[in-house]
Write a sequence for this structure.
């Protein structure tokens, strides 16, 4: 059976679709959900911008720390294991934030990543700090 241009899986999936989708929802923060958490319990989250330093200087989500993805492993000691680390990057197509979250999860950190990155955050009208 085909659904438009998409073909159904011909080999068994490593995990069931329901398990994958539940995990995706558990580890993916929406802009709205992140904003609500930052406002209600800001001490529970460390927001990490994994874009390069230049992009961070131009604009970033208020309260974020910049740890470029290329430096993440070297800077693990800078991050607490008792708080949830939420990573973000540019947009929905940028894989840096999920890859950083995966790296952190494999090292024992509690993690999420921001779905849609800073672009979705801005589309919702939420504040960013811009360089002067």
């Amino acid at each position: 059976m085909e659904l438009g241009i998409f073909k159904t899986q011909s080999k068994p999936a490593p995990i069931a679709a329901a398990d994958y989708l539940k995990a995706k929802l558990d580890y993916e923060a929406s802009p709205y959900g992140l904003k609500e958490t930052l406002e209600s319990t800001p001490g529970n989250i460390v927001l990490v911008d994994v874009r390069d330093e230049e992009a961070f200087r131009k604009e970033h989500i208020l309260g974020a720390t910049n740890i470029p993805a290329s430096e993440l492993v070297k800077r693990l000691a800078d991050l607490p294991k008792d708080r949830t680390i939420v990573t973000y990057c540019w947009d929905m197509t940028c894989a840096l934030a999920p890859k950083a979250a995966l790296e952190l999860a494999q090292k024992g950190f509690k993690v999420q990543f921001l779905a849609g990155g800073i672009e979705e955050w801005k589309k919702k009208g939420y504040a960013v700090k811009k360089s002067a």
The chain has one domain: 14-130. The helical segments are 17-27, 31-40, 53-58, 96-106, 117-123.
